[in-house]
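#structure-requests
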Amino acid sequence: MTYELLILLPISFITGAINAAIGGGGLIGIPAFYSVLTSFSPAQIMGVDKFSSVMGHAMSIRQYAAKMDLPWRLMLPTVITAFAGSYLGVRMLDLMPSQWMRPVIIVVLAIMLVYTWFRPQLGHLDTSRTPTRADLIKGAALGLALGFYDGFIGPGTGSFLLFLFVRFFHFDFLRATACAKVVNFGTNAATLVFLVPAGMVAYELAVPLGVAAICGSVVGSRLAMRGGNQWIRRLFLILAVSLLAKLAWETLRGWL
């Protein structure tokens, strides 16, 4: 495993930094895992990825929480339902293919991208309020839906969380990024509830890659807090365009 570690440690560091700053590190990490870990099954690759991601997200949450007040009252029901949704999504993989959802996700992502592009002030200021009962219900519903998406399909969960926190709860991009890490932690932990008992986590890889993700998370979260909302908004748009192109290409290739 020494050869694989030498290649994947810097990848895991970069992935951790991107996840902490904006989300979407899987666009880099997952292809790298599949390229290097050729003897691993998809479930084993997911086990390594999710285990290291949980370690990275935990550190990024700590970094953000030390610098800003997070709406834990809103986050708690959101994380609980996201955990349940993600576990359900992983189990559904055994029952039906996820490819049929890709065209729907492409349309939703395109709408989200256009909406953000033409509203330059979106997420610039934090106008959030003390969460109401309706907000808690809304957060729980969003957590369940995005958790299921993360377990069933995966790529882009952080981008959707970021946009929805800004759009529905009026967070600025920085606070929305921090909150997205909390929910991402829950969804990734849920997949491990399924993968760990199944023996799908190669700890000799997952643990050192998790340490690298922790180091990357420290760098990424500090860069995000230093860069501010406008910087995160630009990264968000770049990530959304990249994800849209990736999903569109994979869908088109499947039809040809």
